[in-house]
Q: What sequence folds into this?
């Protein structure tokens, strides 16, 4: 039920990558919040916009500029229920919601649509609420299993008064490392990018950050995650030897030795667009050796985009997303900064691919 937790936090996500309040990072983060409750209908609506500094790019003219941007309003509607000390929220698509009287025409009877929060008092929407894992089903009630408890991250809090609805999300580093980060190469998603590439099953470019992330967490959580099989046998791979930082395997007529020389994360965690996560800084390095040829990969990723990084010379290293301003203007903004040698690494690997016979042969 991991998807329900991701859906719970996604409702408060805006298009801009929020940062800290330092003078060189994304700053002046001012939130404007409209909140209206329709108690007779047991529904409410929130409209939120943010004003903050961010790095805006023009890919045609290859320029980057640090600007103060106000985001397009983010509108959410909910039906709510109170069950003793538990608040249940059912998201309503805004096209089905009547903003004048709070009625709606959508059906809430879908399986496990309710998002659950626990509070300190009963009978009132007002108060402080903490998101809890699992989901609420209209016919079966609260549904929580072991997987829900395992993925009780991040911590989501609601603070509700007669005139305000504030979401506060805590991205604690220690539990995230336990859930998502691996120090064992055999558990990393990167292994399967390498198998894909060498056996020509690959559908996506190499994603260097996958060296840090376990394939269990990566499924649907980091970009390009979970698209392939996680069984080496399906790639025709035979594992000869394996440690936390190395792996020796054969494919066809070739033997490969992988050595991981760096895996490092620093700083706090940031939620990015589409529900992805990143540390402020991530680094990794490894080598693949076969037939006397060594192919080396290095990369560094930064999710904390500061003013000093927002320069024209860095535009080819930016991870760029699309967004809209409050005026409705479409912009391209920077969500990450990455330096790597992926193209050279792939070119080197092309020289040591195995000779694999087709099934018909």
A:
């Amino acid at each position: 039920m991991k998807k329900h937790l991701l859906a719970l936090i996604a409702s408060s996500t805006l298009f801009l990558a929020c940062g800290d309040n330092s003078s060189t990072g994304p700053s002046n983060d001012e939130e404007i919040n409209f909140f209206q409750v329709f108690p007779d209908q047991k529904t409410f609506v929130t409209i939120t916009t943010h004003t903050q500094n961010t790095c805006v790019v023009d890919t045609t003219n290859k320029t980057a500029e640090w600007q103060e941007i106000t985001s397009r309003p983010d509108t959410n509607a909910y039906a709510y229920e109170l069950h003793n000390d538990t608040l249940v929220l059912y998201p309503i698509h805004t096209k089905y919601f009547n903003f004048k009287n709070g009625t709606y025409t959508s059906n809430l009877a879908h399986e496990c649509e309710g998002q659950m929060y626990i509070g300190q008092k009963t009978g009132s929407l007002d108060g402080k609420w903490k998101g809890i894992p699992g989901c609420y089903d209209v016919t079966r009630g609260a549904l929580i299993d072991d997987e829900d408890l395992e993925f009780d991250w991040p911590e989501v809090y609601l603070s509700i008064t007669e005139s305000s609805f504030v979401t506060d999300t805590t991205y604690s580093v220690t539990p995230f490392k336990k859930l998502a980060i691996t120090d064992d190469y055999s558990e990393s998603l990167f292994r399967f990018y390498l198998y894909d590439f060498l056996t020509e099953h690959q559908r996506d470019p190499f994603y260097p950050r996958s060296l840090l992330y376990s394939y269990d967490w990566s499924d649907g959580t980091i970009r390009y995650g979970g698209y392939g099989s996680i069984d080496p046998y399906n790639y025709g791979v035979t594992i000869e030897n394996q440690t936390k930082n190395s792996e020796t395997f054969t494919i066809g007529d070739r033997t490969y030795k992988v050595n991981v020389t760096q895996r490092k994360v620093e700083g706090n965690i940031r939620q990015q667009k589409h529900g992805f996560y990143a540390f402020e800084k991530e680094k990794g390095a490894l080598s693949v050796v076969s037939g006397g040829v060594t192919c080396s990969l290095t990369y560094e990723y930064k999710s904390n985009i500061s003013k000093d990084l927002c320069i024209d010379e860095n535009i080819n290293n930016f991870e760029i997303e699309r967004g809209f301003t409050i005026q409705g203007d479409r912009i391209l903004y920077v969500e990450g900064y990455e330096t790597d040698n992926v193209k050279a690494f792939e070119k080197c690997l092309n020289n040591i691919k195995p000779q694999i016979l087709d099934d018909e042969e």
